[in-house]
From TrEMBL:
Zn(2+) 1 binds at H65, H67, D156, D311. Pathway: Pyrimidine metabolism; UMP biosynthesis via de novo pathway; (S)-dihydroorotate from bicarbonate: step 3/3. This is Dihydroorotase. Residues 1-24 are annotated as: Disordered. Substrate binds at H67, F68, R69, N99, H315. It comes from Rhodohalobacter sulfatireducens.
Amino acid sequence: METTPNLLIQNAKPVSSNHDGDDSVDIRIKEGVISEIGSGLKKQDGEQVFDAGGAYISGGWMDMHVHFREPGYEHKETVETGCRSAMFGGFTEVACMPNTKPAIHTRDVVEFIRNKSEHQLVDVHPIGCATKERKGESIAEMSDMKEGGAVAFSDDGDPVYNSQVMRVALEYSSMLGVPIINHEEDLALSRPGHMNEGDVSARLGLDGTPGIAEEAMIARDILLAGFTGGHIHVAHISTRKAVDLVRRAKEDGVNVTTEVCTHHFDLTDKEIESRNFDTNVKMHPPLRTQDDVDAMIEGLVDGTIDVICTDHAPHAIEEKEVEFIYAPNGIIGLETAWSISVKRLLQSNKLSLQQLMDKLVINPRQILNLEIPEIKEGQSANLTIFNTDEEWTYNKNEVRSKSKNSPYLGETLTGRALAVYNKKRFAINTLKN
């Protein structure tokens, strides 16, 4: 990708804590820094011009929960293709989970990923393992990984199951000032579930995973966080009772934050029945009930849920095109996250644009102690240009990920990211339809 240090963005509506998105401005970027904000700015020599046409502009979006699969599973996704997918979705920063091969459990793997992403527009922040090789037996080399660039620790894909190990992880990570992100699952209660346990699973004859498998582990981690003073971040929350647990813990002053995936506030377990066992609606945590979906939205509205993420989980076609019970969990989500957020949160007036930016721009970076981009003169330019009303069709030609496992293929969506700018690089997202 060519560098674009000097860019003039015309006719864009800023949305941030200081801008409500009502008025259009021009933004001049020189050597990657916002040098001027005003009206009627004219092109200067050596400057590229992009007319936003009245679209919105915000700080670059961040997804703090993605799987880029490299190293070890490059047939699913690579750092390069994952960044390409993120750009199309409007994201300029991501944090990638450590269930790679080898796992991100030592500093050299952290630095490998950082080096791989150095020349990409998207900043890729590795999340190191909480335990060595993700085995849950002993704490990984957290301090060394943090020095190498790790921003948090997790065994995602599996929970830190041993309570004493989790206690030590929380105590150690709190000294480093970073969160433990736990995959909240009591394995004794959840396995071998292939979907949510409930009326639909009973009707379909599939082994289900009950919500209590998630809730029991969250309750344990909240208690441990309160006991140790550590910061627990609940990954991909999905049940009403889980949201209630986090809500009460926050009220009690426990250092707990949480995220929700876009599919968990959009789709329900009935999709498995209506789509005739389509493996692109198989994920973990599984799709839950409509009441749980409603609870996710309520949690976003009242601030219990801090962050919108995707759990972007690419799988090769041959891995997903099998019987439902044999298919791996997970879907890609970076490219459709904004449209789903528009449909479920903005069009329904559940959240304002500014509140959505809190979930996509500010909160994930606050949780991971990263610099928050601002639309202000003198600040490094890290920007997303987007709309909320354009209709477009998400077909296989539009997929930028290396994998195609999305339940939204073929659907007409509303709202998309038009362009992104970061690290002196500029990318325009042109549809292929």
